[in-house]
Amino acid sequence: MYEDLKQKLVDAGRVMFSEGLGNYVAGHISLRLPDNPSRFLMKPAGIGVEEMNDDNIIVVDLDGMKVEGVSNRHNEVFIHSEVLRARPEVNSVVHAHPIHTVAFSSLGKELRAVGNDGTLFHGGVPVFSETTDLITTKERGAAVARTLGKRPALILRNHGIVSAGGSVAESVWLGMKLERACQTQLLAESAGGPKLFVKDEDIGEKQKKGYRSDLYNNAFDYSLRKFRRTYCACCLDKEKVVAPETFKASPGG
Fold first, then answer.
1. Could you tell me how far CA 87 lies from the centroid of its own chain?
2. Closest-CA residue to 90 (of 210, 178, 170)
3. What is the count of structural domains for the chain?
4. pLDDT tens digits, residue range 59-68?
5. Distance between CA 30 and CA 34 in Å, rounded?
6. Domain assignment of residue 215, given as a range
7. What is the CATH number for 211?
């Protein structure tokens, strides 16, 4: 079942890997089922985001319980279940550990519009600092959802990111943009600190031009084509990776 939706997750995982949102077997992405909004597809534990396929993707409910699939779920499932519970308009959630965002979060500084990527997050990116540990309980997942609020993304301090969108293309693109915004400011910080920022009067227009469905869908498709040019996607399709079943939940993020 859900072959088309599973393929969207497969493609999203390959884009995440290609764009620096992979981290060995850690990190994950979800997609709400349109015919059953209280359930969602999710990357299983024990494999890389680029190794998802029809056979290993699982179905989880809003209580964080696996209801379909042979693979094990991540123990940070509650990031997804609680954000999806709190945000009915959100259909996809990404959790990743992009290195520049993690490094930037250690500075304790506000993310500013140093470049075009930063304009998307003008007004500040919420930072979840209740813990720097993994989000392994429903209560912690709910706290992450409250911190996210109606924003498109947040930073888990010294840990990673959470992004939320109406589609997998949007949630992945938001994660990519947040990582690039943090990377840009981190470079400026390493050179003595940014002195000039995108002009306040330009922010609104830049956001209108930069936050469009055609743009993030085109960027997603481009990154997928790049992955296929760089790696043999057909080989991954044939490999049919099976997630390990030696533990009930992933010990990683």
1. 15
2. 170
3. 1
4. 999 999 999 9
5. 13
6. 3-247
7. 3.40.225.10
Name the more confident of 148 and 239.
148
Q: Which residues contact 60 (CB under 8 A, 6 or more apart)?
A: 30, 39, 40, 41, 42, 66, 67, 73, 77, 80, 81
Tens-place pLDDT, residues 113-158? 999 999 999 888 999 999 999 999 999 999 999 999 999 999 999 9
Check whether 26 has a pLDDT greater than 70: yes
DSSP of 130-152: S-SS---SHHHHHHHHHHHTTSS
Contacts for 109 with CB less than 8 Å, ≥ 6 apart: 185, 189
Tokens 């760089």 correspond to 230
Q: What angle do CA 223, 240, 252 make, to 5 degrees?
A: 70
The Cα–Cα gap between 24 and 250 comes to 12
252 in any annotated domain = no
In a domain, 253, yes or no: no
Pick from 8, 16, 10: which is nearest to 160 by CA? 16
Give the pTM: 0.92
